[in-house]
Amino acid sequence: MQNEPTIILSGTDPDLPRKLPSGIRRYSGLREIARGGNGVLSAAFDPVTGRTVAIKMLHSDHRNIPNEKRRLLREARVTAQLQHPNTVPVYEIGNDLVHGIYFTMKLISGINLFEILKQIARGDEQIAKRYPQVRRISALSDACLALAYAHARGVIHRDVKPENIWLGNFGEVYLLDWGTAKVWGSMDDQTVTRYDASKLQKEEDEQQLLTLTGGGQRPGTPLYMSPEQIQGTRTIDERSDIFNAGVCMYELLAIREPFRGANIDQTFRNIISGEVPPPSEKSPERKIPKAADEIVMRAIQKKPQQRFQTMREMVDAIEAVLPQLDQG
């Protein structure tokens, strides 16, 4: 969790720096704040705008790997082009002589839904009171609006999960991590220049599966994959994100995952063919309304044609059920 930066008078000075270094040297006070499988997220001060920003770059041992550079650049461009209130604004994309490909974006503060779920599951009454059902599901609805916006522009997220939904300290909600997004149409053609598009997509699908089954993320991540993601279906569309969001909604209501097995293989079998009870039956003590059950169970249908057909349709259903959720 990041603290909100304080506005400093010197940061509003009308004069710009006389000499501005290029690349990451432009920024001062660089400090690492998070580290993932391939990337590093740092915070730094931008003397031109007078604000603290987040900078994402590759690990030093990944900077010269073409596929990794291409994926980071794609993530930067996809995120930059999805200009929505529930996505993080991108400020700059660059290629530093030392650090390689990087991009800067808004430094967000707050907590993600996975941390909230974890603390509620541990019996933290204060967190449960601060983030009741209605607030958790409202945050998911906001993230789904970002997905609806992305879908309208030919982008499928493919990794919707509680860790990627952040609640800010002042009511903001952000859907993060577009690094494994599938891009359709001309955007894909512009991004994939000297590489065969179908070959690159196959590489990305394989990398997505590898990442989700032990490439550095938490063990529970495969729980949110759709049947078509697991089976390697080549025609994954927005209904896969709808399934992912439905699994998130189940967990946000029941504080339990619907498909968890003893291992990844069993979890995948549960997702592909296993039947699960509605959230209200899984966690009767949570007082989950039947209308919420209906949304979840429709979203996690095995066959895409039996789910909501658009994310906007799912959002409308969620918004209608919000007044029925526990306010306390």
TrEMBL record:
Pfam families: Pkinase
PANTHER family hit by this protein: MITOGEN-ACTIVATED PROTEIN KINASE KINASE KINASE 20-RELATED, SERINE_THREONINE-PROTEIN KINASE NEKL-3
Keyword Kinase appears in the UniProt entry: yes
Originating gene: pknD_11
Top-tier EC class: transferase
GO terms assigned for molecular function: ATP binding; protein serine/threonine kinase activity
CDD domains: STKc_PknB_like
EC number: 2.7.11.1
Domain Protein kinase: 27-322
Sorted UniProt keywords: ATP-binding, Kinase, Nucleotide-binding, Transferase
Organism: Stieleria neptunia
SUPFAM superfamilies tied to this protein: Protein kinase-like (PK-like)
Classification via InterPro entries: Kinase-like_dom_sf (IPR011009), Prot_kinase_dom (IPR000719)
Protein name, UniProt field: Serine/threonine-protein kinase PknD
Coiled coil: none
